[in-house]
Amino acid sequence: MTAEAPVAPALSYGRLIPVTVHFDDLDALGLLHNARYPLMVERAWTELWHEHGFRFEGDWAAAGDACNAVKELRISYEAPVTRPGGYAVHLWLERLGRTGLTYGFRFCSADGAVTYATGSRVLVRLDSATLRPAPWSEGFRAVGRELLLPAG
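User: That's the sequence. What structure does it adopt?
Assistant: Structure tokens below.
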């Protein structure tokens, strides 16, 4: 007898990316350390962008859209994560501008039903030579449009 993988809930927007909380991610009180939430969100985004061929491989000049910087991070902790195991990060774009974007996220149970933290982050695409804002590529924008939060 084999166990079937849990089915991710149907989302009306964005993507649900599985993540794992390990024992050493917990703090002295046995709670997921507050600094681990943004790290897990970053890892989920990295996985999503890698699926679409966007990655940093050590060369900023060749990094293209992966050459970006965080302008702002906001997070609200809704409920404590109290044990290691499988969870998920629900990711979406709230805004996709010419040189920047705002993404939203939920750190949640593996099935997406329970929310532990919510937040948003603003990224700016940079020119690797000048470190000034630069436009996203059309390929990146096409993937980004698929992740946009529906208007309304």
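The two ends are 46 Å apart (CA to CA).
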